[in-house]
Design goal:
By secondary structure, the chain is α+β, with helices and mostly antiparallel strands. The protein has a domain of about 45 residues. The chain is built from 2 helices and 10 strands; from the N terminus they run E-E-E-E-H-E-E-E-E-E-E-H. Strand 8 and strand 9 form a beta hairpin. The chain is globular and about 55 Å long.
């Protein structure tokens, strides 16, 4: 996993978490890093934000992707978190350091949603200075089966599959890529 970069980055962190701090990341601009060793099974923080219905969440998500697509220099973050089939959480709020946690194909944390609240829990022991990561759980979009290519992964782990996808989606993604590769050879 990536270690924290000491370069100062402008962000809206309140730096008020006992286990973690925000810093520069080799994965994607900002990241969240362990202040000290953190044992496996530790609840390290809550991903906070404004609860919005699916329609509003989809609108915000679409606007963010459009902004990023139209201006590649704009590193717009996508901070919409799916809570359930009805509600999303817009995490683009000043007190949400959780929005800086990056995706990894070999994460050290997982998300636990309890009563509409989103918690980040460790699934491995984390060493001081190590970047906090979880798998974002993106699913294959059946309308645009190659939509996953719009979300390349830069986690750098040995387990990296190249795209930000839920681990359950990896076999199907590999199947699609193999099929595409064989049709390109024909």
């Amino acid at each position: 996993m990536n270690k924290t970069n000491d370069k100062k980055h402008k962000h809206d962190s309140k730096d008020n978490h006992p286990y973690v701090k925000v810093g520069g990341s080799g994965i994607h601009r900002h990241g969240v890093f362990a202040r000290a060793d953190i044992p496996k099974g530790t609840r390290i923080m809550e991903y906070v934000g404004i609860k919005v219905d699916k329609e509003a969440g989809d609108m915000i998500l679409g606007h963010t992707f459009e902004k990023h697509t139209n201006d590649p220099e704009n590193h717009a973050g996508t901070y919409i978190f799916e809570i359930d089939d009805t509600w999303d959480l817009d995490g683009d709020v000043p007190d949400n350091d959780g929005k800086y946690i990056n995706h990894s194909c070999d994460p050290n944390c997982e998300v636990d949603i309890i009563d509409g609240r989103v918690w980040i829990d460790t699934i491995k022991e984390i060493k001081k200075g190590e970047e906090i990561t979880y798998n974002y759980g993106f699913e294959l979009n059946e309308k645009d089966i190659y939509d996953f290519k719009k979300h390349p992964c830069r986690c750098g782990s040995e387990k990296c599959v190249g795209y930000i996808l839920d681990e359950d989606e990896w076999p199907r993604m590999k199947e699609l890529l193999a099929k595409e590769q064989s049709s390109n050879k024909a």
